[in-house]
Specification:
The protein has 471 residues and is of the alpha/beta class. The chain has three domains: 68 residues, dopa decarboxylase, N-terminal domain, CATH 1.20.1340; 252 residues, Aspartate Aminotransferase, domain 2, CATH 3.40.640.10; 102 residues, Aspartate Aminotransferase, domain 1 (Alpha-Beta Complex). It has 14 helices and eleven strands. Strands 1-7-6-5-4-2-3 form a seven-stranded mixed sheet, with helices on both faces. A four-stranded antiparallel sheet has the order 8-9-11-10. Helix 6 links the parallel strand 2 and strand 3. The radius of gyration is 24 Å and the shape is globular.
Length: 471
């Protein structure tokens, strides 16, 4: 593809995306196809000769689009927000065009230094503890997801607990970790990948607000110590996936300090809310944490993938990750004056992810991002009030930010049927969770284009579907 062809095809793609953004609301939110339907429309063998680009774009419309679940729809209330925006997409395009491989500072200094600087910006934007800034002993790095951040934190904690001898002393098989029953499944997966075993992860029961019970955490730690285990890691959650609950970080942090445990805080979706002063209570106690992460690719108009992972003391992370073959040695690295982010993550290679984050923050400004968060929280609280006032429904958990968990009073079977009917309609998309042993519907309000009318329409559809199911 020549530069002129790229210009022509690129304009076509940008126009297509702009049209999609304008019309996304017209599509069924959840893809309405059966398994295998998309592949049935694809040729069995790849083309021997290149095809005209307009034909490829035609197949995007005719073959791909029926199989797309529209995460950018204002009627998407499932899982969590997965927002994108014009500035973010343009940043991604710039990154792809530059084709930077940012594994070392030397391989593109701008890739590293913009990332370091923008993550320091975010410390100030969210009022995070200063110890997470690169100007001290800590610092931030962009991971692909909170799952990778949790794994990196757990590996650093493992190495610190074993004095960096985990491969030789046999202790890892006695290491134990702790998290709430509502913690993300990535904590379990991290234990498996780290070779510590899911059986050595203790899931601590939640209280009436669906937050980890710190008294039971302390009890579990003491029991493991008495049994000859070595507790080493706790994951606290700010905004659990199931219920949006916030674990008591201050109480957990004091326990971790008492027992010399690594405290990692996963604020994947909810962390963005701390841009607003009035929501910074979610981070009370964060000053006691060893590491922290949140995802701008959920609620901050940055497209996937972009997780901001911070450590209070970077040496443990780097020592856990660093492997330096001769072909990566270079003068800048040897001076110890630069950051090589390949030592802060699992893979060697890395994209220039910071570009899209940089463009979003500069294009919108902090105040416009605050306005977005405040509007979504306001809509969620209004929706929760509607649920609370309806005799047929009840709230399943407190509404802390933008996630409302609710259920019909008719029981699990009734709620499952209600959920299926809503999602099959194509007009809205919700997901579910088990809270207190019972099925609950999750209304996650955070899409960039969601307005009050969309929330009103969703509530009306929920009530109509509930009435129809009763008949």
């Amino acid at each position: 593809m020549t530069p002129d062809e790229f210009r022509r095809c690129g304009r076509q793609v940008v126009d297509w995306i702009a049209n999609y953004m304008e019309t996304v609301e017209k599509y069924p939110v959840l893809a309405q196809v059966e398994p295998g339907a998309i592949r049935d429309h694809l040729p069995a063998a790849p083309p021997e000769l290149g095809e005209p680009f307009p034909e490829i774009m035609r197949d995007v419309d005719e073959i791909l689009m029926p199989g797309i679940t529209h995460w950018q729809s204002p009627n998407f209330f499932a899982y969590f927000p997965a927002n994108t925006s014009g500035p973010s997409m343009l940043g991604e395009l710039l990154s792809a065009g530059l084709g930077v491989q940012g594994m070392l500072w030397a391989t593109s200094p701008a890739c590293t230094e913009i990332e370091t600087h923008v993550l320091d910006w975010l410390v100030d934007m969210l009022a995070l503890p200063d110890k997470f800034k690169s100007t001290g002993n800590g610092g931030g790095v962009i991971q692909d997801s909170a799952s990778s951040a949790t794994l990196c934190a757990l590996l650093a904690a493992r190495e610190r607990a074993t004095e960096f001898r985990s491969n030789t002393d046999g202790l890892p098989h006695r290491l134990t970790a702790y998290a709430s029953v509502h913690a993300h499944s990535s904590v379990t997966k991290a234990m498996m990948i780290a070779g510590l075993g899911a059986d050595n992860l203790r899931l601590i029961p939640a209280d009436e607000n669906q937050a980890l019970r710190s008294s039971l955490l302390l009890e579990a730690i003491n029991q493991d110590v008495a049994a000859g285990y070595r507790p080493f890691f706790v994951c606290g959650t700010v905004g659990t996936t199931a219920a949006g609950s916030v674990d008591p970080l201050a109480a957990i942090g004091r326990i971790c300090a008492q027992h010399a445990l690594w405290l990692h805080v996963d604020a994947a979706m909810a962390g963005t809310a701390a841009i607003c002063d009035e929501f910074r209570f979610i981070h009370d106690g964060l000053d006691l944490a060893d590491s922290y992460c949140f995802n701008p690719h959920k609620w901050m108009l940055v497209n996937f993938d972009c997780d901001c992972f911070y450590v209070a003391e970077r040496t443990s992370l780097i020592r856990a990750m660093r492997v330096t073959p001769e072909y990566l040695e270079n003068r800048a690295t040897l001076t110890s004056e630069v950051i090589d982010y390949r030592d802060w993550q699992i893979p060697l290679g890395r994209r220039f992810r910071a570009l899209k984050l940089w463009l979003v923050i500069r294009s919108y400004g902090v105040e416009q991002l605050r306005s977005l968060i405040r509007e979504h929280v306001k809509l969620a609280r209004e929706f929760a009030a509607w649920v609370d006032a309806d005799p047929d429904f009840e709230l399943a958990a407190p509404t802390v930010l933008n996630l409302v968990c609710f259920r019909h009073r008719g029981g699990d079977e009734r709620n499952q049927r209600l959920l299926d009917d809503l999602n099959h309609s194509g007009r809205v998309f919700l997901t579910h969770a088990k809270i207190g042993g019972a099925l609950a519907l999750r209304m996650s309000i955070g899409q960039a284009n969601t307005q009050r009318r969309h929330v009103e329409q969703a509530w009306e559809l929920i009530r109509q579907a509930a009435t129809a199911a009763a008949n």
